[in-house]
Amino acid sequence: MATRTEHKFPPIEGVRWFNVCVLVGTPLIALYGLLFVPFDRRTIMFAVAYYLFSMIGFHRLWSHRSYNACFPLQVFLILGGISSVQGSCYWWARGHRSHHRWTDTDKDPYDSTRGLAWTHIGWILFKSQLRRGVVDSSDLSKDPLVQWTHHHYFPLTALFGYVLPALIPALWNDALGGFCFSAALRLTVAHHCTFAINSIAHYLGSTPYDDALSPRDHFLSAILTMGEGYHNFHHQFPMDYRNAILWYQWDPTKWFIASCKFLGLASNLRVFPSNEIAKGALTMKLKNLKKVQESLVWPPEIEDLPIVSWESFQEESKRRPLILVSGFIHDVSEFLDQHPGGAAYLTKNFGIDVTGSFHGGVYRHSNAAHNLMSMMRVGVLVGGGCPPSQSIPPSQALFVAARHADKDISIK
User: Fold this and answer.
1) What is the pLDDT of residue 409?
2) Domain named Cytochrome b5 heme-binding: which ranges (predicted)?
3) Residue 36 confidence (pLDDT) above 90
4) Fewest C-beta in 10 Å: which of 149, 193, 248, 393?
């Protein structure tokens, strides 16, 4: 994985007091409800449903234009995003596009190199000299729904974030429970689950598609965020309407969008070419295999072995246990006591070409035996005539190579 330079929490130039009030006051209201307000099952069920409404949000439609939505669906989604009290769609989508374009740099609004505290909540609460990088948001500037909700954000967020989730439970005489649970508790959970994508989704998990940047895939992040936790995939293929492509991966937002298409509410669901996704996955598998490959001990290179005449081989075999297999001279001194058939099978063949016996004349040895035998090579017989198929041990028939513009270099 590419090494990231860790930066300090940036110098603070001020406090975003409105955000502080929301992110401190809302949890306090929720805590009051948990301690002193009786639970009403209907309110709790409504709070869960309203939470799902809030979490669908702006992301895949307006930040990434990963599908088209009919106007009623757009209204539903934008009001859901507004109900999460995380800024207008215009502000949120522009910031998220900047995060993708400038990931892990000072121009990334939630630069992961500055630590979990900054990426999770610090950038929201404090002012600094950091400024998000420029992105193209011309489509958002021209979208009448996005602009109308942007200019009326505060009354809309008060209505859909706090007032409406309190008023609906009032229908069954639980307005206080609605305010504490379906408003405040729902918002507290929604805030920190969403913030987790900026924080733990850049630290916790795996990098199955690319490791040049910090985004990672993790099931926990996906559970917390309606499927947005497959962040490594998402940063590699941001225009894809899916965050998860495997059937068992948790991505209810993908299922919601697909259902909307089935109902005729959504269209043009964009997917990245599967061939290119497979390339990314293969690249990371090869990188991981390369690490394993580099951790192993391999037989000496053929060109590094001395070339030995038959006479020298015969003479040297009188002083140490040498046998000839496929044109290679092997020193079996450390294997005599470990040979499955007993040492006698080897001792009687010192100084002898046992290629035929090794390859099935006496016993058809396994790939593991071939691999082990190759580690005992100490020389090459002049004119030994090793068949090409036998010169490379099975363990080295496939290997990871680093490809450069002018040549391929095998990674040993």
Assistant:
1) 54
2) 311-382
3) yes
4) 248
Residue 121 placed within a domain: yes
Answer whether 353's CB lies under 8 Å from 327's CB.
no
Residue 6 pLDDT class (50, 70, 90 cuts): low
Sign of torsion, CA 234 236 238 242? negative
Residues 216 and 109 in one domain: yes
Task: Report CA Rg, the chain.
Answer: 32
In a domain, 98, yes or no: yes
Burial class (CB in 10 A: 0-12, 13-18, 19+), 292: exposed
Q: Among candidates 285, 280, 281, 289, which has minimal Cα distance to 395? A: 289
pLDDT interval class at 1 (50, 70, 90): very low
> Where is the domain boundary, 251, 285, 319?
285
Q: What is the pLDDT of residue 407?
A: 56
Over residues 190-219, the pLDDT tens digits come to 999 999 999 999 999 999 999 999 999 999
- Which of residues 256, 285, 314 is at a domain's end? 285
Interatomic CA distance for residues 159 and 118, integer angstroms: 29
15 - beta bridge partners?
A: 126
Which 3-state string (H, E, C) describes 354-369? CHHHHECCCCECCHHH
- How many structural domains are present in the chain? 2
> Which residue range(s) make up the domain with 371?
302-396
Pick the closest to residue 136 from 63, 87, 240, 237 (CA basis): 63
